[in-house]
């Protein structure tokens, strides 16, 4: 027994020593684990044997008990100096040069981009939907969308998913919210082929509770980028919206929308809520993960990050508090549609339009450029995972540009590189 005790004591001392080497401490929590040298063999060994704590995947959400008794705020106060926000729809560059075709995001100059981050009482900015650039919606659907004040929005493009019906909906939410899913022709045909499509007597298309809104003349070559239109420009598609909840198409919402708004906006007086990423706080860590998982062309992700680094974007550290992370879980976005929130979403979209379609890489940069002028609530990741049930895609993404490893490969005509976005990656400022 004595020998066993000595052996155990030596083992504990060895582990303590390894923790000191890898993490600078013998007491490691989920938060402090982020300070460890994750690429070291010591850290990887400790992690493999369970000595590094893992974040909780799912936890209970402290929602109100009954949506019927939730008080919807009647007075909407916005403390931002921004009072009036309008959008540029006529592109001077395309009008002056007939050889340039209209682009959905426009030909925003670098100077216009810099000016858009300076908040003033009245602003006019690029925010997609440039004239004659695509992204068209049928007047019948526009009529429906214009009446929506409370919105649950989603989108499916290129047939990657099927609509999933929300569960645990209260009668109050069913009557208060519009549930709208923006789709392209391929997805609409797939939904119809599965027998999940119905039409009302006015020609409106439905899949269960979801009103299907067809986006015609797609603005981009890349399905993932087309999906950013309803996700980030929800305020443009729903012009009368006061509140919206975005969920990705692969998700089944399992928490009542009224309870979501009460928990993440009204209770704390927030205007914008989004979850922290489970693993990353720095956009540079997230960029490396995107390259490993082939989410987009590696050299273009590198170029994107080089530009941000050159413009002063530092990796996340405690010096950035109260911003808890530069990387969100972008599959759920909860917002009140104030001028400032709408501006933020325009700026976020403009970065996605100018660079890569990986919106998690641009989110923290926009927060950084607004320099504390955009307060937001970044809630725990474990609550985020309790909001939905995740379903598998119906098929894998098929964009060839996601597999590109070198710039030379982009010259291959068979890869079909994007031609209507990512212009900020094509040259220096």
Automatic annotation (TrEMBL):
**Signal: is it a keyword of this entry?**
yes
Where would one find coiled-coil regions in this protein? none
Record keywords, A-Z:
Signal
TOD1/MUCI70 glycosyltransferase-like domain mapped to chain residues: 85-393
Classify the source by domain of life: Eukaryota
Which residues does UniProt assign to the signal peptide? Answer: 1-24
The family database entries (PANTHER family) matched by this protein are listed as: ALKALINE CERAMIDASE-RELATED, OS06G0724300 PROTEIN
Name of protein: TOD1/MUCI70 glycosyltransferase-like domain-containing protein
């Amino acid at each position: 027994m004595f020998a066993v005790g000595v052996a155990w004591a030596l083992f504990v001392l060895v582990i303590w020593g390894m923790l000191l080497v890898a993490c600078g401490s013998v007491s490691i929590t989920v938060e402090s684990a982020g300070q460890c040298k994750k690429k070291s063999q010591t850290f990887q060994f400790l992690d493999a044997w369970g000595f590094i704590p893992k974040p909780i995947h799912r936890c209970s959400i402290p929602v109100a008990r009954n949506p019927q008794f939730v008080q919807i705020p009647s007075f909407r106060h916005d403390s931002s100096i921004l009072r009036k926000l309008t959008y540029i729809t006529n592109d001077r560059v395309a009008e002056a040069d007939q050889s340039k075709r209209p682009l959905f995001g426009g030909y925003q100059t670098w100077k216009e981009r810099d000016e858009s981050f300076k908040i003033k009482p009245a602003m006019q900015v690029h925010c997609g939907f440039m004239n004659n650039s695509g992204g068209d919606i049928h007047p019948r659907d526009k009529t429906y969308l214009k009446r929506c004040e409370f919105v649950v929005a989603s989108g499916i493009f290129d047939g990657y998913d099927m609509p999933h019906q929300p569960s645990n909906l209260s009668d109050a939410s069913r009557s208060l919210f519009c549930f709208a899913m923006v789709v392209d022709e391929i997805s609409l045909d797939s939904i119809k082929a599965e027998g999940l499509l119905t039409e009302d007597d006015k020609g409106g298309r439905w899949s269960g509770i979801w009103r299907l809104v067809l986006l015609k003349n797609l603005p981009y070559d890349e399905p993932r980028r087309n999906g950013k239109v309803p996700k980030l420009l929800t305020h443009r598609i729903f012009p009368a919206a006061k509140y919206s909840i975005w969920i990705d198409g692969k998700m089944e919402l399992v928490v009542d929308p009224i309870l979501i708004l009460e928990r993440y906006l009204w209770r704390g007086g927030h205007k914008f809520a989004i979850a922290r990423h489970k693993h990353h706080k720095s956009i540079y860590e997230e960029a490396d993960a995107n390259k490993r998982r082939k989410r987009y062309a590696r050299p273009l992700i590198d170029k994107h990050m080089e530009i941000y680094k050159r413009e002063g974007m530092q990796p996340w550290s405690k010096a950035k508090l109260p911003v808890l992370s530069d990387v969100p879980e972008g599959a759920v976005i909860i917002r009140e549609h104030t001028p400032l929130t709408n501006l933020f979403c325009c700026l976020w979209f403009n970065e996605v339009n100018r660079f890569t379609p990986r919106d998690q890489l641009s989110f923290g940069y926009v927060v950084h450029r607004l320099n504390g002028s955009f307060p937001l609530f970044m809630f725990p990741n474990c609550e985020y995972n309790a909001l939905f049930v995740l379903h598998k895609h119906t098929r894998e993404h098929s964009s060839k540009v996601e597999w590109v490893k070198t710039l030379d490969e982009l010259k291959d005509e068979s890869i079909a590189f994007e031609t209507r976005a990512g212009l900020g990656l094509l040259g220096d400022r």
